[in-house]
Amino acid sequence: DAGITQSPRHKVTETGTPVTLRCHQTENHRYMYWYRQDPGHGLRLIHYSYGVKDTDKGEVSDGYSVSRSKTEDFLLTLESATSSQTSVYFCAISSEVLNQPQHFGDGTRLSIL
Amino acid sequence: GENVEQHPSTLSVQEGDSAVIKCTYSDSASNYFPWYKQELGKRPQLIIDIRSNVGEKKDQRIAVTLNKTAKHFSLHITETQPEDSAVYFCAARIFGNEKLTFGTGTRLTIIP
Questions:
Q1: Parallel, antiparallel, or unpaired: how do β-strands A73-78 and A19-25 relate?
Q2: In chain B, which residue's Cα lies nearest the Cα of A101?
Q3: What is the pLDDT of residue A2?
Q4: What residues does B30 pair with on adjacent strands?
Q5: pLDDT over 90 at A88, yes or no
Q6: What does pLDDT average to over chain A?
Q7: Chain A contact for B46, CB < 8 A?
Q8: What are the tens digits of pLDDT across the range B19-66?
Q9: Of chain B residues 56-85, which have a CB less than 8 A from chain A?
Q10: Counting beta carbons within 10 angstroms of the beta carbon of residue A75, is it exposed (0 to 12), middle (13 to 18) or buried (19 or more)?
Q11: Which residues pair with B32 in a beta bridge?
Q12: How far is residue A102's CA from residue A91's CA, in Å, rounded to a whole number?
């Protein structure tokens, strides 16, 4: 299994509070991704990173920010959480070798009350 | 951008029978097509992938076919077993782009 650790695995918080999710990899892969998974929507890309300090938006980036200060860590921040951001969040990684698959972490279940 | 449609959304199959899940994509520049299996409460896991320079790939009971002209690809599972019950996702990636676009998933149930 790819060396990906997401933390925390579960979190319950209140509307309006800031939340940061962490993804840590031990594979030294260049690309890292944050997805959210909701019933009926599959996996939707929030943000991704193609190197240290290099990030770009995905299809559902509003309300989220990311940072990557080290190759191994990719942080997802909800500056002011809303109930619509209740979801399961997955981190994924892939190498820079052409046409390699993405491998996923175990996910973080986030509930915003 | 790429758009991927996946059908059916749910599929029930008798144990031992075959299951087929189909996906279509919109961008002819897509050249990489992975399939993921997700068991309840678990992470998506890659089960098979295909690149646009081949039309079919097999791995034991699982096979994927690709029709570039029609822009669709399919997952075939033969001799289904109870442990095949899961949600399956297809995805597509445009050449030169590191982002995957996922289908909305198929919940496969194997009936004993």
A1: antiparallel
A2: B34
A3: 66
A4: B94
A5: yes
A6: 94
A7: yes
A8: 999 999 999 999 999 999 999 999 999 999 999 888 999 999 999 999
A9: none
A10: middle
A11: B51, B93
A12: 10
